[in-house]
Specification:
The protein has 393 residues and is mostly helical. Helix content is 65%, strand content 6%. It folds into two domains: 3-44 and 186-389, no CATH class; 52-170, abc type-2 transporter like fold (3-Layer(aba) Sandwich). The longest helix has 32 residues, at 187-218.
Length: 393
Amino acid sequence: MSEADKSQETALAREWRHLRGDFWDAGMLSWIPVLLCGILWLVFSAGIARDLPIVVIDNDNSTLSRQLTRWLDASPGVRVTAKVASSDDALHRLRERTAFGYLVIPGDFEKKLLGGRQATVQWLYNAQFSSHAGALLRDVRTVSTTLSAGIEMTARVKKGMAPLQAAAQFEPIRTTLNSLYNENISYEAFLTLALMPSMLQIFIVVAIVTGIGRELRDGTVPQWLASAQGSWLRAVGAKLLFPFIAYCALALLYLLFFSLARGWAVAGSLPALMLSMLLLVLAYCGLGTLLIAATLSMRLALSGAAFITAPAFAFAGQAFPLLSMPPLARAWAEALPLTHYLQLQTKYWLAGAPWRYGVQEMLILAGIAIGCGAAGVFLLARRANAPAAWGRT
């Protein structure tokens, strides 16, 4: 394109020409987030952790101790990889991470049980891996309780008690546990549905920062502004339009994939969920604009983007309860758009909430989008057209 033609093209045409000619910038809006999100989904696609390795120290080597070991190995979440002779051997396997816990069966296990006395087995696990530990503890407790109940009920039946009466006396209060919203406690619903928007917000901010920062770094702000007929609002709008369309399309793809292909149907208001996704994209477009406008340096703005977006998931209330955070951590969490979006997603997608349950979070996202975007455009108009602001890395 000749220089005369370039001087006459609109801001949108100018941005479109750049995207067609830059493989990596175009990739940031298309195949790169799809690829990385696909890899992330593959990590958690199994949904439920199964066959987590443990070892057993069987000091009794009796019929009941072997039965306990077999039942443990048969439970879906546990795999008994070995029987070891000592705690030193078991700890060695935990340190190697070839096992996540070990069960110690005492030498008088069967004798005590058959004599009507209490026998204690020790379960020791690597608490550094809380998700592993929770799943293993649940299965180990279930197996040991089932075996204990079976032995007790058999003993009572042998004494002449009817089986139903023995069961009622052994468990006079029965608790029925029902999981809501994520019935199978699937990591695909718990983590993947939340991690996808967490990845998306990083790409949004980086795309906006690099798009505007490139003009500042290369000193092409006059040409950029001229293509928008001198309007900073049009110039910034042209920069934001293609990322906004691309990331809204990616958010829709994410919604369709998990709701249709993976079976996680939206239980609540679908229009409200889609509006929430749109507001999330807008909020991070505004945040990216504010970062580059405040720093006028692509390097500093990208550093700020990393500081804000990379650890955002840790503060979003998914892995650690928001209500239990210290005041400073919670204040930071409440300032992040991702926190409010994930609350909306949980309400609408999994919990089946009607649209009115998320109005407050939607207004917060809209406020962040408008506030950050307006502040960013204002700062660019005041500072970015001066030659002193150009050429920074």
